[in-house]
Amino acid sequence: MTSYQFDDRAIHWNRFGEFEPPFHFHILHLDRQSRIADVLFKLPAHGQIVLHRHRALNHTFVVQGEHRLYETDGSLREIRPAGSYTVSPASERPHREGGGDQDVIIAFSIRPDADDLLYELLDDASQPLGTVTFPMLAELYQAQLAAVPG
At the top level of its lineage, which domain of life is listed (predicted)? Predict the structure, then answer.
């Protein structure tokens, strides 16, 4: 079977906050009526992004690399190889995510309930840093559309 490399050079990546290590996103589409946001995330190889909780239903498809999930103590929880599709309900359990030997690119289809809360961002002591909401993502999408022609 032939192996392919995903070419993301035509994607306009946006940095998510000022977190270290940095990670990036690109909003593919946002449907306000159906309340579905389709977003690509690019997470660093051998890195762990900010601790967070998923507060909405997430459908994920690993486009490139390995999607690694980590416990709050940094231990590896799960590895999802390229081609993996997962449906994950909202959860109280915080985690970190990152890539394996290369940056991982994951397609997220984020589907909140009546609540607009998508993610809770946490510090290393699991204390709240902030939230990501559906209206916030809608604003980012409008900014992205304005910044990228076509």
Answer: Bacteria
Q: Is residue 7 part of a domain?
A: no
Q: What is the largest CA-CA distance in the chain?
A: 46
Does residue 1 lie in a domain region? Answer: no
| Structural domain total, the chain | 1
Instruction: Give the β-pairing of 96-99 and 24-31.
Output: unpaired
pLDDT digits (tens, 9 = 90+) for 26-79: 999 999 999 999 999 999 999 999 999 999 999 999 999 999 999 999 999 999
CATH number of the domain that 81 lies in? 2.60.120.10
CB 72 within 8 A of CB 104: no
**Residue among 24, 25, 106 at smallest CA distance from 65:** 106
Q: What are the E-state strand segments in the chain?
A: 14-15, 24-31, 36-43, 51-54, 57-64, 67-70, 76-80, 85-88, 96-99, 104-111, 117-122, 128-133
| Residue 2 to residue 120: CA distance in whole angstroms | 39
Q: Is the overall model pTM greater than 0.85, yes or no?
A: yes
Q: Is residue 9 part of a domain?
A: no
